[in-house]
From TrEMBL:
UniProt subcellular location: Cell inner membrane
Family of this protein: Belongs to the CcmD/CycX/HelD family.
Highest taxon in the source lineage: Bacteria
Main location: membrane
Official protein name in the record: Heme exporter protein D
Gene Ontology CC, one term: plasma membrane
Amino acid sequence: MSHMGFVVAAYSATALIVVGLIAWVRLDGAAQRQALEELGDRPRGGRD
């Protein structure tokens, strides 16, 4: 009895999940950098 199909499916699913997580982290990092840039460009409120 061969379990090759299960092994291939498990590794494929794992690879897909890892690639998805990497893409999510990269996209979120870009969004966070953009938000920080916008926050840094705002004028500071306060008494002068």
